[in-house]
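Reproducibility note. Readers wishing to regenerate the assembly model reported in the main text can use the exact inputs given here. Chain order matters: entities are listed in the order in which they were concatenated for prediction.
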Amino acid sequence: MQITRETDYAIRCVLYLTSRTDRVVMVDEISREMAAPKSFLAKILQKLVKADIARSFRGVKGGFQLSREPRDITLLDVIEAVEGSIALNACVLDRTACGFSSTCAVHPIWIGLRAEFNELLKKHNFADIAGTKPSSDREP
Amino acid sequence: MQITRETDYAIRCVLYLTSRTDRVVMVDEISREMAAPKSFLAKILQKLVKADIARSFRGVKGGFQLSREPRDITLLDVIEAVEGSIALNACVLDRTACGFSSTCAVHPIWIGLRAEFNELLKKHNFADIAGTKPSSDREP
DNA sequence: TAAAATAGGAGAATATATATCTTATTTTCA
DNA sequence: TGAAAATAAGATATATATTCTCCTATTTTA
Ligand code: SF4
Ligand code: SF4
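Running the prediction on these inputs yields the following structure tokens for the assembly.
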């Protein structure tokens, strides 16, 4: 019922790239700054590239950069880039996962909740998130 | 990002008990009807008892029964009975799980999402769910 | 062409989910 | 009163998923 560490790393990563849109950033730097294991993060960045959230450059002077405006990248985008389509119960993504799905009274509820939940996640984009002051920084 | 099989079994179980509030039901019967492994289900029922969702009776003629009105048992109640408090990211349940929590811009978002999500789950009680016709049963 | 970076695949280590088994306790009723 | 039938509780096994590393290939720069 939680996002994985991998997904959290991905979010930190996009958040860091949001603060460095002016240049190309190496995995090593993101890894250091966001305290995520370098080789794991490299894999995660590949997923972000496939999802057209980041762009990569190889070779000397290579690295990563966001490929879209932070305002056009939502929490849902990043989560789905890493975990694929999400749902709160297996039967939502694959009806055949459960023999009861055609008669089950809970099944349609999970489907509805998935839609509502995804909407909640879509509401948060990285321009807004990067602009958010954490509670401990708020003024009196 | 999904509920576990254990939790789904728990929900099926409460749903079955909702349809049999007139009597005490043995684990064996729930297991058969809801296609859940008997000894696993027995463990799950212990959690439901601890959460005051079900009541148990030992010995011959023993079994289980809901201990509250179906209308007063929500999806959130059952999920929390099985999984404990839920949140979408580890730092929400335990700030110390992540060194960034005091400065992280995403942290407060997860806290807000948790509250919104829990509200969604609270809206569904078992009286309503049991009254829901699955899509395949709807009239033309 | 050497050095520095990412790409991609394989796989190891660890944690979690999914059960099962065994023994103890409670309750009924012949 | 004692055998049978049920749950309680704890230990343990198995499977799967998560988390992370390593190796080799490819690309790019200078
Ligand atoms: S029992 Fe209902 S809710 Fe649970 S997996 Fe099957 S169809 Fe989905
Ligand atoms: S990085 Fe932020 S959101 Fe992620 S675990 Fe740490 S505090 Fe929570």
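We highlight two features of this model. The interface with chain B takes residues 1-4, 8, 11-12, 15, 35, 75, 79, 83, 86-90, 98-100, 102-109, 113, 116-117, 120-121, 124, 129-130, 132-137 of chain A (CB under 8 Å). The longest strand of chain A covers residues 54-57.
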